Sequence to fold (642 residues):
Amino acid sequence: MFSQDRWQEIFETIRKNKLRTFLSGFTVALGILIFIILFGFGNGLKNTFKEFFLDDATNTLYLFAGRTSKPYKGFKANRRIEFKNDDLKDIKENFPFFLEYITPRISRRASVRYKNEFDNYNTRGIAPDHQYAEKTIMMSGRYINELDIKNKSKHAVIGRLVARDLFKQEDPIGKFIDVGNSVFKVVGVFQDDGGDNEERYIYIPYTTRQSLEKGNDKLDQIIVAFRPELGHKGAVAFERQLRAFLKEKKSIDPTDPSGIFIRNVADQLKQNQQFANVLQLIVTFVGLGTLIAGIIGISNIMVFVVKERTKELGIRKALGATPKSVIQMILQESIFITTISGYVGMGVGILILNNIGESLEDYFIKNPYIDIETALFSTLILVIFGGIAGYIPAKRAASIKPIVALRDE
Amino acid sequence: MIQINELHKSYKMGSSSLHVLKGINLSVEDGELVAIMGSSGSGKSTLLNIIGMLDILDTGTYELDKVLIEDLDETKAAKYRNKFLGFIFQSFNLINYKTALENVSLPLYYQGVNRKERQEKALKYLASVGLADWATHLPSELSGGQKQRVAIARALASEPKLLLADEPTGALDTQTSCEVMDIIQKINQEGKTILVVTHEEDIAQMCKRIVRLKDGVIIEDVKVNQVLAAQYV
Fold:
């Protein structure tokens, strides 16, 4: 295999048959190049998908209140249910085993002004733990803290885009903004991976929001996070118990489908992950398809190459080449060419992927990439199958009688 | 050198079979120059292919240099060919992307001779057919006669015991044919045993013995007075 003489013979053959070498090399390189790029695009699609759907914390339940649809315990149907501050306390006390954190959310739209710049934004009255539920990332300053809640302080944390639109180049920290006619001090600026809309929110303490609205204790929404180690089954059980508990507390018929609504992110996550799996499957399928197409391409070239060399092989055999040495020569040559051109194609493919980067984001392909193991492995597969594809015609050529091969003009 | 007894060979053609050689008995001594003659279909090429181990006999025995050639698989045949035989073909059968020198050194490559020695030897044999100056030329740059001389040099390079020539002058004009035959005669005079398959009477007369085949049997086997090709060159 490693005899210098045989290599010299092979290099000579390669050097003197440039077109043939180029053709077979090009097929291999193109095959692996297309594979790398398609696979990379698939991964880019997955990246986009992840960013769209998998941004928020996944161990959370969103609790909403609505109207009942059944009469119960003397209450009429169509009664409006509302969450109150004491619901937070009760959930905390009754479900310590399940609970990781809990936060209310009161959403209000408000006109917000700083100096001469103003616009309408969504404000959210929240508790400090809300930061985990939304996976909010602080760029500067701080998030709303417990002291803000206790003091009902007029502190606001604004999104990156709010800061950009209202403050331009100015540093917003410590500045005062008008939020629906009350003055708030900006204590922090955040960013969020969930996209532009998520960065247009203004977070304020929920107690402050309540005091602005005549000191009530009403909550829009409660976000409950369960311990991740509960898993999906535990989350479903928790959801069931929580629903029963709240219905009991609010005097809602246990069979009433309305009144309390719970959105389980874990359920959604499961669906999204299924979708992601389908996407992965498609990517794998496309990859496999191109790989197979590449293998077929190589097989064709190999059949052609061996056919073209039939007479030469016949001459070699008449001069004393054993079938084994004929097969070895063809295989060694084909593996050499496929390896070199395969890795060239791989390198070019990776280079192209790296240069694409963000430029195809409009087509939902973000940061296409291929991990080096997959790239190396698929190239190796192609080389191996190139070898097998070369072996079959080589074996046949080697077993042709020299007279038959020589007669073949 | 060659001892053939009751050799039969037939080819299957679909359902029927074609009996090509019907009991050949032939014995060739060392240093002979034998012409095998016959019209097409007489079985002369088949006989040469069997002697050359390019084909396998059905029944009978074939001894080459006192070695009984039997149970011939491809690997064994390749080794015998490399060790015992040199071939000269009508259509030269040079490898077209290799230079004259590389073509001549190819059998030595399969003998496992190292590169340097290979080239020295090849150049020596190329010089012996008068083509030393053409060593680096490709077959496409050579004339028909030159190609056949390269092929002869290649056949000699492995230092075979027996040289087999299948219509060596079939693709050449009279003048070049005589040149090639001159070389073959000289090689023979140096002691090499040579078999020449031909259908040209004047080429056959340049050999020392003529074996005539017809319909798969030898009909005549005579010694002749050799006509020297050199007088026509």
